[in-house]
Write a structure and sequence with these properties.
The complex is a heterodimer.
Chain A lengths: L1 H18 L16 E3 L6 E3 H6 L15 H8 L6 E3 L3 E3 L8 H12 L5 E8 L2 E8 L10 H16 L4 E7 L7 H20 L4 E10 H4 L8 E5 L4 E2 L3 H8 L10 H6 L5 E3 L1 H20 L1
Parallel strand pairs in A: 6-7, 7-8, 8-9, 8-10, 9-11
Antiparallel strand pairs in A: 1-2, 3-5, 5-6
Helix pairs in contact in A: 1-4, 5-6
Chain B lengths: L4 H13 L6 H8 L1 E6 L11 E8 L2 E8 L5 H6 L7 H16 L4 E7 L6 H5 L2 H12 L6 E10 H5 L6 E5 L3 E3 L3 H8 L6 H8 L3 H6 L5 E3 L10 H21 L2 H13 L4 E3 L1
Parallel strand pairs in B: 3-4, 4-5, 5-6, 5-7, 6-8
Antiparallel strand pairs in B: 1-2, 2-3
Helix pairs in contact in B: 1-9, 4-6, 8-9
The chains are: A alpha/beta, B alpha/beta.
Chain lengths: 292, 271
């Protein structure tokens, strides 16, 4: 018990020391404070409570707001069924990259998470799954050593316990500050997915906004079934880089979930409100096949 | 005047990118006898950024898959400066499976600024192509060695870089992004590329120290282009030895070690 209070005290101290008065430097979260929230797409003002009861989807234009990993878990898993695993991994600074520790600390205070991936087990419509969710509010969900290791442990756990795996990707790609170690997490997470695959187990990958770079080019693209959440940006290279390289404007809808569907890279594009029931159906279907 | 680390690293970046630096085709010509090039991904196209084929390494049949930047200006354009499209990664995978079928070891030669960031590449699934290669390579049942010859650019390099051993030439680089790209993202200023190159730890020495690579192939003074034969001789002998050693092993053991090699990369704290 004492530890919890000590922890909390330390966090408050860090907050006081590092964050207060530096607010303007922090990045904006998608859902600002206040009674009403403005939709960035259609400018509609939405009552905050309506937004949360509507899966953080704009009531007018159905544009999907970005949500935190915890919010996602709450939305997708059965009530009180989520049991967190591998939450004891902490980020270090493998390259001694300038200011990396401070940056991590800032995001930890801001998001109340240690890094950008939450893993555990839960039931979905009564079906037991190993579930992982990336948090795009933590350094754009970038994958460094901790994210890579947690993904790997989760997939190993699923393989060992013969559980289906559901991972929600939300990431700008590899974490630059960890350099080559981040790049190698692509190989590591893909390797472990391959073992899960060879064990004949189901992996459903859900691509949410955004899924790009090193995460798109590794475990997020390796699902037996790949679902794209409506409106998600999905692709390999960043749009600015592509524009600079080719020197022309990009086509409309380029790298959207709908674009990936049309090009044949995702099985379906699903509205957030239908995600849970789609997942449950898929899980039940695979379970039936197993029992047969 | 003494050189700082930043100067030294930037010098290596320049040597790795030197237009006179021998490319994959030069290496293949020197190391591999009776090389026969094979083309096409059987799905869409033949990506000329990738050279693939079969030949003999000291009388041992081997598959070679390399990224080719091109020698002349015209050839560089034709080869897209070594920046592969999805069809290149598909072609590489096709040739890997072929090697597996005929039980031939594989040599990968990495030399790319990165996978090409373009509209067509995205439309044809650049991310998916690389991801599939990463997953498939971990369980490919033949001995494999990847050698970074010049630039090892990001996922584009890794897409043929998951092997039993990864070697680097002394003045090659291997990084998550180009120093220019890195500087523009993290320092918001592409002109700080020199500083970025040093902060990123992209040299063979750094990566050897981090145990990301297994061996460094020495180069002549001022770079490989000054005496390619010297380095290629060393490489050839070491490859012959390593493939011989790998082929003595049980394939299940090779795969277990390969998995472990990548499984264990990462630096974090556990409380």
């Amino acid at each position: 018990m004492n530890n919890i209070f000590e922890d909390r005290k330390a966090k408050v101290e860090t907050y006081k020391k590092d964050i207060r008065g530096k607010k303007e430097k922090l990045f904006k979260v998608d859902i600002p404070e206040g009674l009403f929230v403005k939709c960035e797409k259609c400018n509609e003002h939405i009552f905050r409570e309506d937004l949360s009861t509507n899966h953080y989807v704009c009531l007018k234009c159905r544009s999907h707001f970005r949500i935190s990993a915890r919010e996602r878990i709450k939305m997708i898993t059965d009530i009180d069924s989520f049991y967190e695993l591998f939450s004891n991994l902490k980020t270090l600074n493998p390259l001694n990259f300038p200011n990396y520790e401070e940056k991590i600390k800032q995001y930890q205070v801001q998001t109340n998470e240690l890094d950008a991936f939450i893993s555990g087990v839960a039931t979905l419509g009564g079906e037991m799954v190993a579930i992982g969710v990336m948090d795009s509010f933590f350094m754009m969900g970038s994958m460094g050593s901790v994210v890579g290791e947690k993904v790997t442990r989760l997939v190993e756990y699923a393989t060992e316990k013969r559980l289906p795996l559901v991972i929600f990707a939300a990431s700008g790609g590899a974490r630059m500050q960890e350099g080559i170690f981040s790049l190698m997490q692509m190989a590591k997470t893909s390797a472990v997915c391959q073992h899960h695959n060879e064990a004949g187990l189901l992996y459903i990958s859900v691509l949410t906004n955004p899924t790009t770079g090193g995460v798109a080019a590794s475990f997020a693209s390796l699902g037996d079934i790949i679902i794209a959440e409506k409106g998600a940006l999905i692709g390999f290279a960043g749009q600015r880089v592509i524009k600079q390289t080719i020197g022309e404007e990009l086509p409309e809808n380029f790298q959207t979930a709908e674009f990936q569907f049309k090009k044949g890279f995702v099985d379906m594009v699903v509205d957030r409100k239908d995600l849970k029931k789609t997942l449950v159906k898929l899980l039940q279907l695979h379970k039936k096949a197993e029992l047969r | 005047m003494t050189k700082t680390t930043v100067d030294k690293v930037w010098e290596i970046v320049q040597i790795a990118r030197n237009i006179k630096r021998p490319t994959a085709q030069v290496l293949i010509k020197y190391l591999i006898d009776d090389f026969i090039e094979l083309h096409g991904d059987r799905l869409y196209a033949d990506d000329s950024c990738f050279i693939g084929g079969i030949g003999l390494l000291n009388n041992m049949p081997i598959s070679v898959i390399g990224q080719e930047k091109g020698l002349s200006t015209n050839e560089k354009i034709k080869r897209n400066f070594g920046m592969g499209h999805p069809e290149g990664y598909h072609k590489a995978l096709r040739l890997m499976r072929q090697a597996e079928k005929f039980n031939r070891p594989i040599l990968f030669v990495i030399d790319t600024p990165g996978a090409y960031p373009g509209i067509g590449a995205e439309e044809r699934g650049q991310a998916m192509a690389i991801a599939v290669n990463l997953a498939e390579m971990i369980s490919l049942k033949v001995p494999m060695i990847s050698v970074v010859l010049g630039e090892g650019g990001s996922g584009g390099a890794l897409g043929i870089g998951v092997s039993d051993e990864v070697w680097m030439f002394e003045n090659a680089t291997y990084s998550i992004l180009s120093p220019e790209g890195f500087a523009s993202i993290l320092y918001k200023d592409a002109s700080l590329a020199r500083q970025a190159a040093s902060d990123m730890k992209i040299t063979a020495q750094d990566l050897y120290r981090y145990k990301i690579i297994d061996r460094i192939i020495p180069e002549a003074k001022d770079g490989l282009h000054n005496d390619p034969e010297y380095s290629f001789n060393i490489l050839k002998n070491e490859l012959i030895e390593k493939y011989y050693e790998l082929r003595q092993k049980n394939i299940a053991d090779i795969l277990a070690l390969r998995y472990k090699k990548y499984r264990n990369i990462g630096i974090y704290e556990e409380s």
